[in-house]
Amino acid sequence: MSKQAEFYQELLGQTKALISNESDIIANMANISALLFERLEDVNWVGFYRLVNDELVLGPFQGKVACIRIPLGKGVCGTCAATAKIQRIANVHDFDGHIACDASSNSELVIPVIVSGKVIAVLDIDSTVFERFDLQDEQGMQAIVAAFEQSIVE
């Protein structure tokens, strides 16, 4: 197992431990954001946007002040929510319609949170480093989001 795979296994275990006995979705979003912001290298923003009335609304996060509302289908987060597909963007400046909440962000990874077949939120992770996120990051974060989704269903 690679060092990066081991890191994500450990992070998944920590995530599960944090959320296992808590049913409040906002509390779990807050702790997941804090854990990821603390443990991931080269990230400048980690947090959730919740889908409310066909737009994304800022949820718990760690980092600089952020955009409060994002229309569905707009920017990286809105595209993720509209398509229910992970967005791993090496250079956000090349992404058509990118919304620059923080001009220092250069790459982004956004994972949809899907419950009962519907996107209810997205987990957004930004970095000042171009091409910060690779397939292992994507898979590691997808496993963490899956554990979070499972905690909502239970």
From TrEMBL:
InterPro entries, per database record? GAF, GAF-like_dom_sf, Phosphatase_reg/MetRdx
Q: Which GO terms describe its molecular function?
A: L-methionine-(R)-S-oxide reductase activity
Per the database record, which ranges form the GAF domain?
Answer: 44-152
* One Pfam family per UniProt: GAF
Q: Which SUPFAM superfamilies match?
A: GAF domain-like (SSF55781)
Question: Got a GO cellular component term for this one?
Answer: cytosol
Gene3D superfamilies cross-referenced by the UniProt entry = 3.30.450.40
Q: Specify the superkingdom.
A: Bacteria
The entry sums up its family as follows:
Belongs to the free Met sulfoxide reductase family.
Name used for this protein in its record: GAF domain-containing protein
The top of its lineage is: Bacteria, Pseudomonadati, Pseudomonadota, Gammaproteobacteria, Alteromonadales
